[in-house]
Amino acid sequence: MATPGIDEPRIASGPFSSYVLDSAFDEMFDAQRRPRPHYRALYELLLSLPVEQMRHKKQAADVSFLHQGITFTVYGRDEGTERIFPHDLLPRIITSSEWETIERGLTQRITALNLFLKDIYNEGRCLADGVVPREMVYSCKHFRRQMRGVTAPKNIYVAVMGTDLIRLPDGRFVVLEDNLRVPSGVSYMLTSRQVMKRIFPELFQYTDVRPIDHYPEALLTTLRALAPEGRGEPNIVLLTPGVFNSAYFEHTYLARQMGIELVEGRDLVVHDNVVYMRTTGGLRRVDVIYRRVDDDFIDPLAFRSDSILGVAGLFNAYRAGNVTLANALGTGVADDKALYAYVPKLIKYFLGEDPILDNVETLLLTEPAVRRHVLDHLDKFVVKAVGESGGYGMLIGPHSTAEQREEFRERIEADPRNYIAQPTLMLSRAPCFFDGKVEPRHVDLRPYILCGDKVTIVPGGLTRVALRSGSLVVNSSQGGGSKDTWVLQ
Amino acid sequence: MLSRVADSLYWMSRYLERAEHTARVLGVQLNLMLEQDPKSSDRRWLRVLASLGHTEPFPEDGDPFAVAQAHALRQITASIGFARENARQVREQISSEMWEQLNRLFHEVRRMESADLWKAQPLDFVAVIVESSHLVQGVTDSTMNHGEGWQFIQVGRFIERAAEIARLLDIYFHEFPAGQPIDSGEHMEWVGLLRSCTAFEAYCKVYTADLRPERVAEFLLLNSEFPHSVRFAADRMQHSLECINEAAASRRSPRVAKIAGRLSAGLMFTPLEEVVEGLAEFFADIQQQCARIHVAIHEVYITYSIEAAIEA
Which CATH class is domain A362-423? Predict the structure, then answer.
């Protein structure tokens, strides 16, 4: 018979003395409070390393992030403040079989969503067949009527997708939301791996972690695959809103890693429906634009006329097929949080398959009975504005004040289509390092899915962590941080 | 390279050169003020104002020293701010070391400004600017790829330098025409001019400490080896523009190199006697040519019209 403490290490020892397990799924420990096999190496390292050395590693990581200038900008304060992205030292580990399910599920999802986008901007079969109510699509803030009849190259509307997964108490990964417009965060995934390799070489030695460094190359291949036909060596550029954008660091990072030009709207001109960039050697034709500018701002002639970030005439060049925009315009209709509720049906409709990754139960507040129920129990639900992202416009019932609930009640009653409700979910927890102690915090997972000639998902993603104890909000703009994510061989 | 990036690099460098030049002129005059009587001091500060391109009407009862110092300090802080803002726009194009140095300089200036140190100890302030500017230039040369972007930085620096020195010479020779013997009071003025171009020691090595206006003009205009002479600046500018022409391979760009070549050739081949005969015209001509080169660079590389580019 095994002796406790050797074969069954006790959770309460050493740096784990204040580690709490409850109903949430714990990434490191099973229900019997034993470390899961794939976390064993990390667990033992944490027990054996002196606390001082861990602190030292933590400092080294922070300094490394600071020096590389890995920052983001928070909006809605007095001025855009640049901050270092908070980072937790301990990796989040995913087994190969878990990853295999995620990979299949996300491949299925992006395939279905691309078919859906093609359909609603062209024939509209799924609308005619009543799979999705017409008004649900047409009332969506991100539906672009200008895209009617426009076909994207190879019918790929979404070339880059960032899907947020969470793990429920029963251990299943489910989809919380999709990001189909300009998903960001991939640079944190890449740089955090580089930092970790420098700081934890011993762990990498004993763990078979799958590499992710090829993401920029995979992205470039994807973009190249979508170039307009007949453009032999396509000129690919990354379009950024400029230095004041919250993700500017990421734009410069990706452009450098891919070896492509980082351009702003004022660098591009359109002549005869062809897009050029202004270089010192004259105008140079542009074939593919990996755009990190929102739909609304991309072309003042076609969309918001007050935009100075965009390029006049770009949309016409796009419609004429002379330039590829990745992602296409109007993809936001498919990541609308109300439309999200229909994605399982869409997968069934377009692919004839059952969804591999489930959705989170979502209540549409356009139904009067449902709305009444949610309004009566606002303190139990998470309410989200359908067109927002980044954790803005959200009410977390159990953590809200009476005033906030009152404010949301009024907003919901004024515009029920604009809100959805989800039950408050117990996100899984992963161990984090806080000044000598290891404590669990809630995490999610955002893998990045690329879709060109084929679907590519680098094994990993951005694990976002709610660093405040008890908090369920992982968004970087709301005090969240990140962790390196390891997928095992 | 993107036109916008070239433009930002050019201006970053021009503004930094302007800050350094202004700081040096101010520092030299502050030093001279310690040694000389107040009467000549007023004239000197008016000259500083003119050389820094101050065009606002001078207040009736204004103190030239106060006005000139305030103007110079404003010009320095503004130039540092613009240099940093331009660098910020192209942060991914310059080395991190460059950005760090420039950013540090900017914050140092802000700190000294907010603590009013710049007025309390202007000489210290000026020294910080000149030193930091040298540091940024050194870091630039040793950490950045000497490609097209670096060449634009060179062009920005040297076009600013050529124009500044020509204007300074213009003002001095207007006040103290060449060919007249200089008295002891004037002697200090010529030392001041040379120091404003970091040229006093270098001049002495070539001509000894025997200061003659013709020789000062020759040295600051035509010397091919001294980095703060107009000729040196023009040569470097022309060389960089040729490199840019090669890198950018634009069909219209020989025009820029030609205009710059003419400035350089004028300085190389005009005999000294001819220069001295029409000094004022010569200085004015250099300033005009610099302005023309600036416009040509922008027309050819940066703000060209789409129609012109499509035809080319």
Answer: alpha beta
